[in-house]
């Protein structure tokens, strides 16, 4: 049974692997046997790379600004000039909380490019590479609770994550018959660097209102994404495609 989750001999390309959920997923895939390619905004961030290499796996890093569509459009060609890979995990994302009526166009465009634009470009270029080389690959995108719920003061983020969910379905529809599976993971409220201010604010009203609504009674941790990511990247999920797994402690069931 455990062989179904074995990623030995596989290579995964991951964005957003410097910290938080992306870092945990990168390490989790390495623990399952995969070598890792990290696409980072700054390659001086070596913590994840060192952790992967400590497991005896290989790790390569490439620098790119995912907010720059032109830069993103060169990533796959640059990577595949040196490496082949069978797994793509799009984790990188940003959030900007601004009232909708005051949302600056430039900020809206930034959020859409990082969260949706880069995901589309990397999926498109990876899919083309895999189809050309007969590789039966697996893509794991990162959706959100905001793929289902609009939220407040997060119009751009919600729009981007709703689109990621539908992009996942659309790509699966086109590529499933050709051996490429496309799925997504939708995180709930997870304790990461991005929300440390919410969790440590002396006024705990907002934090408490969220926590009490989560059936498990707590926020998730990045490490809890290792299992879902390995599952979707491995043969264990061989007949699953076009789906979004919600990892939220039961939030969406309320």
Q: What's the helical proportion of residues?
A: 25-40%
Beta-strand content estimate: 5-15%
Distance between the termini: 33 Å
The Cα radius of gyration reads 18 Å
CATH class: Alpha Beta
Number of domains: 1
CATH architecture: 3-Layer(aba) Sandwich
What is the approximate shape? Answer: globular
CATH homology superfamily name: NAD(P)-binding Rossmann-like Domain
Mean residue pLDDT = 96
Treating each run of at least 4 consecutive H or I residues as one helix, how many helices?
Answer: 9
Describe the largest sheet: 7 strands, parallel
Do you know the CATH topology? Rossmann fold
Instruction: Supply the helix-strand structural class.
Output: alpha/beta
What sequence of helices (H) and strands (E) makes up the elements?
A: EHEHEHHEHEHEHHHE
Question: What this model shows, in words?
Answer:
This is 2-deoxy-D-gluconate 3-dehydrogenase. Belongs to the short-chain dehydrogenases/reductases (SDR) family. It holds the Pfam family adh_short_C2. GO terms for molecular function: oxidoreductase activity, acting on the CH-OH group of donors, NAD or NADP as acceptor. Keywords: NADP, Oxidoreductase. By secondary structure, this protein is of the alpha/beta class. It has one domain: NAD(P)-binding Rossmann-like Domain (Rossmann fold), CATH 3.40.50. It is 39% helix and 14% strand. The chain has 9 helices and 7 strands. Strands 3-2-1-4-5-6-7 form a 7-stranded parallel beta sheet, sandwiched between helices. Helix 5 packs parallel to helix 6 (155-175). The chain starts with 10 loop residues before the first strand and ends in a 7-residue tail after the last strand. The mean pLDDT is 96.
